Amino acid sequence: MNIDKRLESIVNEIDGDTLVDVGCDHGKVTFEAIKRGKVNKVIATDISQKSLDKCVKLINKANIQNVEFRCGDGLSVVKDNEADVVCIAGMGGYEIIKILSNAPKGIKKLVLCPHHDVQALRLYLQNSFKIEKDYAVHVDDHFYNLIVAKVGKDSLSEKEVLLGRDNISNEDYVGLLNALKEKYYKILALDIPPERLDECERCVRIIEGELCGSKKDI
Ligand SMILES: C[S@@+](CC[C@H](N)C(=O)[O-])C[C@H]1O[C@@H](n2cnc3c(N)ncnc32)[C@H](O)[C@@H]1O
To answer: d(Cα 3, Cα 188) in Å, to the nearest integer?
Structure first.
């Protein structure tokens, strides 16, 4: 199956015995995780039956065994010790936090790809997880954050919370910095409360410092 660079990176990070693919939708992560032998079994879940049906169709058409389909909110449909690895991709950071806050026992590894609010997610994760990898995947004109975490604790610097720990060695670090700078400039042009203004200005200072260090700019 042809999958884009974002999904390819997500699937590459998956390994374990039983994966929960939360918000499985089209089913491509479930499909590739089984096909490539990344895991032995997948519990494919989605809050929407219509979305889950897309995954059911793909998996059944390929006659793939070892996939269970469950319709429901986040990890509420998974019991303790049923799975050891969880993938949550294509949702906002706060939705992912909500889902992880009700995680069953036995989860050892997370593969997360939040589509926004990644800083909030990083701050949440450091209390119960050790972030093993945190990097951006550049697809077309968008940077997707990919976080791989294992059970443990972490302590992130302000720069790591903003930029992700591993992006300094990203081949398109400057592109990522400029994309973030543009995002914060747009926010700063809005009528935002003083505390949000301070926060955004701090972020811009960090980004500009990094850009200065890399001696490149837009
Ligand atoms: C944008 S799609 C992402 C699909 C796939 N994970 C990906 O990254 O390409 C988001 C999917 O998550 C599902 N979803 C949203 N909130 C959810 C929740 N709390 N629990 C389970 N599924 C959820 C939606 O129904 C939708 O199918």
So the answer is: 36
122-140 burial, b at 16+ Cβ within 10 Å, e below that, comes to bebbbeebebbebbbbbee
Query: What does each C-alpha distance from 64 to 7, 13, 46, 67, 198 come to in angstroms?
Result: 19, 21, 19, 7, 52
32 lines ligand 1 (CB under 6 A): no
Q: What is the dihedral of CA 55, 74, 143, 180, to 10 degrees?
A: 160
* Residues present in the chain in total: 218
The answer, yes or no, to whether residue 171 has pLDDT greater than 70, is yes
85 forms bridges with which residues in the sheet? Answer: 19, 109
Atom of ligand 1 at shortest distance to CA of 88?
A: 6
pLDDT at 217: 47
CATH no. of 5-155: 3.40.50.150
Positions of CATH 3.40.50.150 in the chain: 5-155
Collapsed DSSP state (helix, strand, coil) of residue 80: coil
Mean pLDDT, rounded, for 179-207: 94
Confidence of residue 215 (pLDDT cuts 50, 70, 90): low
Do 111 and 87 form a contact (C-beta atoms < 8 A)? yes
Q: Is the dihedral of CA 38, 49, 121, 77 positive or negative?
A: negative
How close is the Cα of 202 to the center of ligand 1, in Å?
32
Please state whether the predicted TM-score (pTM) of the whole model is above 0.90.
yes
